[in-house]
Amino acid sequence: MTARLLDGKATAAKIKSELAERVKALAARGITPGLGTILVGDDPGSQIYVAGKHRDCAEVGITSIRKDLPESATQADVEAAVDELNADPACTGYIVQLPLPRHLDTQALIERMDPAKDADGLHPVNLGRLVHMVDAPLPCTPRGIVVLLQEYGVPLKGAEVVVVGRGITVGRPLGLLLTRRAENATVTLCHTGTQDLASHVRRADVVVAAAGVPHLVTADMVKPGAAVLDVGVSRVDGKLTGDVAPDVREVAGFVAPNPGGVGPMTRAMLLANVVEAAERR
Ligand SMILES: Nc1nc(=O)c2c([nH]1)NC[C@@H]1CN(c3ccc(C(=O)N[C@@H](CCC(=O)O)C(=O)O)cc3)C=[N+]21
């Protein structure tokens, strides 16, 4: 058996065309959504990601506002950029590209953002609203994962989901999303302190690998027919390597590869958050 592809690229393209329609409806009301990005330093990976986000915006009709600061930027410099986007009526949502250079206080910058403009859904107020199950911008990768599974009809109600990784951008908020009544999954959140990861993964109907450990999930750990989503990336000998070993596709029922799976969904959900922020205004 070979797994069915959870095609994030195709699903994201479909979502983007739906968002383009909503942007047109907003235009008729005189509203143009605008995405801001704050990028500090010249990490080549971050440059590529940010450029991709601005390309996505152009495709959908969202204005984009770039604030690029040098590696030498001080906390006060980045705070000033945050304050400007908070105040800018043309910016309906924005992100601070992570990771920031080590001399900057990431937490203080995220907390300084206007939660209503938090396109990443990572502001403590918005993560708190997720805990409270109150409507708010949702974290992009977890939301993209849920939408991708729904698109392919992978059942979540009553399903056993194992999430590997407890990071703030993926694992931890994904557990919160999947345990809402609407999704109703049973979630096990595994991490580096988990004893016998394989015994947990083996029971899972859905496995989300977001630990950043190359080929952490191997074919022998996967229940036949399970859905396996590869979210981690690491560089091994200069090559991008996911958290899921290639032979998992021989056992799994569905696979979201990396690239081509969850990454494009993350980007599409960022656009959705920006459009929704504009619609709420
Ligand atoms: N504030 C903030 N928000 C983020 O959402 C954020 C961030 N910082 N820092 C870095 C990570 C990484 N990330 C990716 C999103 C999409 C792809 C993606 O679309 N990848 C393609 C391949 C690359 C491409 O085609 O451009 C794929 O998986 O098919 C990758 C990585 C968002 N991040």
UniProtKB/TrEMBL annotation:
EC number: 1.5.1.5, 3.5.4.9
Species lineage: Bacteria, Bacillati, Actinomycetota, Actinomycetes, Streptosporangiales
Binding site for NADP(+): G165, R166, G167, V233
Subunit and partners: Homodimer.
UniProt entry tagged with the keyword Amino-acid biosynthesis: yes
UniProt-recorded name of the protein: Bifunctional protein FolD
Alphabetic keyword roster: Amino-acid biosynthesis, Histidine biosynthesis, Hydrolase, Methionine biosynthesis, Multifunctional enzyme, NADP, One-carbon metabolism, Oxidoreductase, Purine biosynthesis
Similarity comment: family membership: Belongs to the tetrahydrofolate dehydrogenase/cyclohydrolase family.
Parts forming coiled coils: none
Entries under PANTHER family matching the protein: C-1-TETRAHYDROFOLATE SYNTHASE, CYTOPLASMIC (PTHR48099:SF5), C-1-TETRAHYDROFOLATE SYNTHASE, CYTOPLASMIC-RELATED (PTHR48099)
Tetrahydrofolate dehydrogenase/cyclohydrolase catalytic domain ranges (all copies): 6-120
